[in-house]
Amino acid sequence: MRRAALHFAIALLCAGSNSHAANRTDNVDVFIGTGGDGHTFPGAARPFGMVQLSPDTQVRHFRQSYPWAAGYRYDDDSILGFSHTHFSGAGHSDLGDVLLMPTAGEVKLEPGYPERPFSGYRSRFSHKDERAEPGYYAVKLLDNDVDVELTASARVGLHRYRFKPGAEANVILDLRASIYDWSGKNLWSRLRLRGTDTVTGMRETRGWAPGRQLYFAIRFSRPIVAHQLLNREEGVEYKGFAAPGKTPADKVLVEGKALEGTFGFGTPADGTVLVKVAVSGVSEDGALANLDEMPGWDFDAERRRAHDAWEEALAAVDIDAPPPMKRMAYTSLYHALLAPSLFMDADGKYRGPDNQVHQAQGFRFHSTFSLWDTHRALHPLLTLIQPEKRNVDFVRSLIESQKASPYGILPVWQFAGLETWCMIGYHAVPVIADAYMKGLKGFDADEALRAMTASAEYGPYGGLQHYMKLGYVPIDLEPEAASKTVEYAFDDWTIARMADKMGRRDVADRYYKRAQNWRNVFDPETGFVRAKKSDGQFRTPFDPVRSNFGSDYTEGSAWQYSWYMPHDNAGLVKMLGGDAGLINKIDQVFDAKIDPAVYAHMEDISGLIGHYAHGNEPSHHVAYLYNYAGAPWKTQARLAHIVKSQYNDTPDGLAGNDDLGQMSAWLAFTALGFYPVAPGSNEYAIGRPFVGRATLNLPNGKRFTIRTEGLSDAHPYVGSVTLNGKPLARSVLRHEEIVAGGELVFRMQAAPDKDWGKAPANRPYTQTAY
Predict the structure, then answer these.
(1) What residues have CB less than 8 Å from 571, skipping those under 6 apart?
(2) Which residues form the Glycosyl hydrolase family domain (predicted)?
(3) Residue (of 517, 491, 621) closest to 560 by Cα position
């Protein structure tokens, strides 16, 4: 969609707007992914910010569900309020902490219903009165007649509310509200009035991460002249409207499971109230100290700082492409820079996986690791486009989490420092290994390797005790056994790669052997990965389309999971009888004529092209597998179809959950012309570019430029490739070639070149020799 059409006609909101000609942020459309199953949010945040402040539009009264996992959905026409924590593209609902809503006149304590205007503090809005860009969001609340603007620093969200002249200005704080579940999520919460302009509090919840503690500090730009602190659950309500300074000491604090606060500011002469909200995982005092990150009340200056932070982050890549692709590419980079998110107070304190407070030494603790998704492309992308310091923070955060884990293992799917146990694998391992293989310094490699092997050898997790004994996960003893076996095998290979580079042959040999375990569940007779029982027999009957949760596969079927041995694609080629066998199988994946109802019961199976499901991660590398069978021209054709059908520059422009940036990272890499099929290999399979020109401005000060000649829909195939002026015969690009700087040039043409990249010597790395 075109943001120009959504600029405010409201003079007050336009008064604070910035004019940034030809900025990279101008090419970001934060509404991409807010419709359909993208699950992104349009609100204000800094790169990897701890505060991600955004409107919540959920339509249900007390309970939330999957379509509103990010709080906001573009199809809705009313806003519940503005909360300070969100996931970008997750497939699970949670967060939505510290929801504020400005209202004029009568104070209403219930949110009301979207189909019944004025039934509560909820307000209708129109997209024509909505504007957003990286680090900034604005909207007009039609029912409340309030203009809202939001911006943020790393730990602080800043609101600016403009009320109509003469209106009584009020702000609702609803601690019952959350994206996950209003009625039963809160274990305990607290509200405390501190003086005439500050409120602090906390909430402990039992959502996706049980026992999560979130503390906050709210400061208003004007003195509070009336307030209520309410415990709605117990029916014990304090409705004193006395001046806060005269309120009895025992009436300035309320605790319970269903708290609300209302704060009145009379009728401000200029109609403006600003609010700063800082969050902390440690304490109310920590949140108060975090407020100092944003001194003063200059909203426009803070908006400029947020804008400049995004300009600096997006400056890692300069892109020249047709307008829709340019918007999609820059928006993909934007989404890729939201997580993992900071989860540490300004003084270095953070809450770890043991739910205890720790002190960071020499790094910034980050959380929100959606590792099953993001180990594939997001983290490899961040090794290219983020300064080394941030990637060191990520690796050290993972290692410190392992030290503090009650189980002694690396995070699986972590947020707010806590483990959710969502998804499978031990995919912090390839994130660390890939960073090490690419030369990242700043962490102790021996310490990291110990953390990695501790995770790979923790028997009680996910059937690992059986995997280590039998060489596979048996389906009669552990669910999703086929998927777990092949994912463990890949993770094991990345351990071997890192240990090998470190000179630890004892570890490397052990894990190279374990990396071959995928063969134990591959059935040459059917050509699929299958679940095997503890007696060594494949489970029967076998249906390759079967895809129920808790069965043989994780969020997929044999058609999606049988090609997940990215470290050993030559081994897969041999299992399938040679190059033609792999090509035929992958052709069947894409060309199958299936009834969409086959996968209708699976929320995460979306973006279907035959059995290929681009809306979920197990399929993401599959189009690139033709390179390993000497047919990169087929990869090029499939990529053209995927990009055209699975992405666009509208709110429903993502085929599935963005999953904390993985869906976006896939497009960012693919648009440049290459993709990290096997993180840890230091290689990228070459596909085909979708941009006319792109330059990676690398952290080491060098530049790597991708240039495309003859880019058009009529030229979907690569005719030739040169690297630094010399012909490139192989269908693979090496990491060291990128970071050395230089130029990669593609010449596109109408007909495929079936010889380029065909020779075994010109194919990407794989563990088994061709």
Answers:
(1) 516, 518, 519, 565, 766, 767, 768
(2) 287-749
(3) 621
**Per-residue model confidence (pLDDT) at position 61:** 46
Distances (CA, A) of 173 to 97, 232, 427: 10, 13, 38
- Over the chain (770 residues), the average pLDDT of each successive run of 10 is 32 35 86 96 98 88 69 95 96 91 93 89 97 98 96 98 96 82 78 96 92 97 95 64 50 89 96 98 98 97 98 97 97 98 98 97 97 98 94 98 98 96 97 98 97 98 98 97 98 98 98 98 97 96 75 93 97 97 98 87 85 95 98 98 97 96 98 98 98 97 97 97 98 98 98 98 88
CA 720 – CA 714 distance, rounded (Å): 16
At residue 704, the pLDDT reads: 98
Please name the CATH architecture into which domain 359-461 falls. Answer: Up-down Bundle (1.20)
Query: Which amino acid appears at position 452 of this protein?
Result: M
**Model pLDDT, residue 50:** 98
CATH architecture of 472-482+493-562: Up-down Bundle (1.20)
Q: Kindly tell me the number of DSSP H helices and DSSP E strands found in the chain.
A: 18, 39
Residue 703, helix vs strand vs coil: strand
Strand partners, 523: 528
Cβ contacts of residue 540 below 8 Å, gap of 6+? none
The model carries a pTM of 0.95
At 37, give phi and psi (nearest 5°). -110, 20
Residue 468 pairs in a beta bridge with none
Please tell me what DSSP assigns to residue 86.
-
Of 54, 63, 8, residue with least CA distance to 33: 54
**Pairing relationship of beta strands 130-133 and 99-104 according to DSSP bridges:** unpaired
C-alpha–C-alpha distance, residues 610 and 592, integer Å: 5
pLDDT of residue 551: 87
Phi/psi for 189 (5° steps) reads -150, 165
Show Cβ contacts of residue 395 under 8 Å, excluding neighbours closer than 6 positions.
431, 432, 435, 440, 442, 443, 448
Q: Do residues 392 and 364 make contact, with C-beta atoms less than 8 angstroms apart?
A: no
Angular region, 171: left φ>0, alpha ψ -120 to 50, beta rest: beta
Beta bridge partners of 707: 693, 745
Question: pLDDT at position 738, please?
Answer: 98
Which residue type, as a one-letter code, is found at position 244?
P
3-12: list long-range contacts, CB under 8 Å, 24+ apart.
3/29, 3/31, 3/131, 3/132, 3/133, 5/128, 6/127, 6/128, 6/130, 6/131, 7/131, 8/129, 8/131, 8/138, 8/140, 9/128, 9/129, 10/129, 10/140, 10/147, 12/147, 12/162
Which class is domain 574-770?
Answer: alpha beta
Give the single-character DSSP code of 68. G
Q: Which CATH number fits domain 3-310: 2.60.210.10, 2.60.120.200, 2.70.98.10, 3.20.20.70?
A: 2.70.98.10
Side-chain-facing half-sphere of 716: CA atoms under 13 Å: 15
pLDDT at 207: 84
pLDDT of residue 19: 37
**The pLDDT value given to residue 17:** 37
Residues 6+ apart with CB under 8 A from 397: 340, 363, 364, 365, 366, 367, 369
- Mode of pairing for the β-strands spanning 674-675 and 317-320: unpaired
Query: What single-letter amino acid sits at 291?
Result: L
Instruction: With beta carbons less than 8 A apart as the criterion, state whether 617 and 570 touch.
Output: no
DSSP 168: P
